[in-house]
Amino acid sequence: MFRNAHPDGRRGIKGTVLVLLQYDILVTELTKPRSMRYAPMKKLILILCSILLSAPLSAFLSVGTAYLLTEPVTVQGYHFNPPIWATAVVVAVYEIPFYIIVGIPVTYLIDYLIKKFSPEANRLKEYSYLFLGYFIAALLLSVSLLQSDIEGYLTVFIPVFVYFHILWGMRLRFG
User: Fold this and answer.
1) Long-range contacts, 107-112 (Cβ 8 Å, 24+)
2) CA distance 103 to 51
3) Are 104 and 47 in contact (CB under 8 A)?
4) What are the structural domain ranges in the chain?
5) pTM for this structure?
6) Does the structure show a pLDDT above 80 at 152?
7) Rounded to 5 degrees, what are φ and ψ at 78?
8) CA separation (Å) from 36 to 1, 28, 32, 116, 143?
9) Are 29 and 37 in contact (CB under 8 A)?
10) Separation of CA 102 from chain center
């Protein structure tokens, strides 16, 4: 059974122990529930998918809100609004790297803090804690960007909460 336990073909205690340890690791990995084996990668994939879904949606919501809150630009006596589709696509393209660079670490940090301080929370409590965590993160980000008007705060809060709700829905469905 352990004939070729050693690379040179020798049988010895080291080779036998190595094979037994490898077998034990393999058995424990295969007997774990499937959700536990792939949990870190599944969490990252859910985060990336929610980023790809929330960037265009939050861009359209942000641009639409900006159109409602601002006056049209007047150029040579004509009122001019840039096309909403083009503006939203540009905003979405610039939001995706920001989501990845800032959003993934903040998501992992908020999840870690909630698991550490409230491990046995039901869905309503977990949702409330997550909402509070993302609210604090959005508030810190908007203050650090020196946003002082309502449009500036909405520029930060809309993408954060769109991402949070899409991630929450994906976790309920696939997590």
Assistant:
1) 107/47, 107/167, 110/134, 110/137
2) 8
3) yes
4) 1-31, 35-174
5) 0.70
6) no
7) -105, 140
8) 31, 11, 6, 18, 38
9) yes
10) 9
